[in-house]
Amino acid sequence: MKKNILVIYYSQTGQLEDIVRNIAKPFEAQKDAYDITYYNIRLKEDFPFPWPGDVFFNTFPESYLQIPKEIVPPSEEILNKKYDLILFGYQVWYLTPSIPIISFLKSDYASRILKDTPVVTISGTRNMWMLSQEKLKVYLRDLQAQLVGNIALVDRHDNYTSVLTILRWLTTGQKEKSGWLPAAGVSDEEISGSVKYGEIIERHFKNNDLKNVQPELVKKGAIEIRAFLVRVEKVGNKIFTVWSNLIIKKKEKRPLLIKFFKVYLMAAIWIISPVVLVLHLLTTPIFWFKRQKQKRYLQGINLK
Ligand SMILES: Cc1cc2nc3c(=O)[nH]c(=O)nc-3n(C[C@H](O)[C@H](O)[C@H](O)COP(=O)(O)O)c2cc1C
């Protein structure tokens, strides 16, 4: 009997769609063994791409507070089938799974599709996905899905270069390099090379050994943890909690507060985060073992 594989994703630029399609290739190559369905999550009212700058920043409070929008229902076929494995592609918006992904997870469809099913999560982000994955782990646990693997593809450039290139990419649509700035996002080599992760997943799936897939994915480079970025995310989550609640509460002042938030965010990236970096480097010997432990945890699929 053929096994049913479901590939769930949302992608504005097409980057994440390319990634999940590459990871699904080893399954696609065995059409007699696998039936593969793609479920592209769609919102009734989608976000624009490229993003007008003000819309981009205005999306922050709802993104961070995980306020869902209405999604187009998945097809009856998807809702009525039992899947043997789900490849779940998502991106991060403001240190949180994106609004389209949250909207799906909070919909009634999510538990029908995900319950009692092994899931491999796949993200394509700038570089700050670690605490977002923790948020996603909670959803998957509550929906009684079985998280078996995680692949996190990122922009490997330094944190500052990737801020500049992602802003160019998201607000103008230009991913390719321009002047002295490199291409944005996950590199083409890593996107096409992600087939190798699909091969690992397919082999473990076939051998009924998905519980051991994550260590092999990690060994092959599916997850890089930069301790400094985890620290930035921790601080960022605290500050985002304050800003998002303030903006939501003070409805009448929203446009002004969003402008302040934008200035604050830029200052945080260009002024505060270098200070955090220096402190982080200085404390390396003291926190060495703690950070190694944290790294191992974040590379894994368990939830603390
Ligand atoms: C509103 C918004 C906020 C984002 N925030 C983050 C973030 O906090 N961390 C991160 O690593 N990437 C962030 N990104 C980048 C996305 O995760 C993703 O890599 C990029 O938008 C391309 O995604 P797509 O083509 O799959 O939709 C953000 C993107 C958008 C549009």
From TrEMBL:
Tell me the InterPro entries matching this sequence.
Answer: Flavoprotein-like_sf
UniProt keyword terms in alphabetical order: Membrane, Transmembrane, Transmembrane helix
Bilayer-spanning residue ranges: 263-289
Q: Does the keyword Membrane apply?
A: yes
Taxonomy, superkingdom: Bacteria
User: Can you say what this protein is called?
Assistant: Dialkylresorcinol condensing enzyme DarA
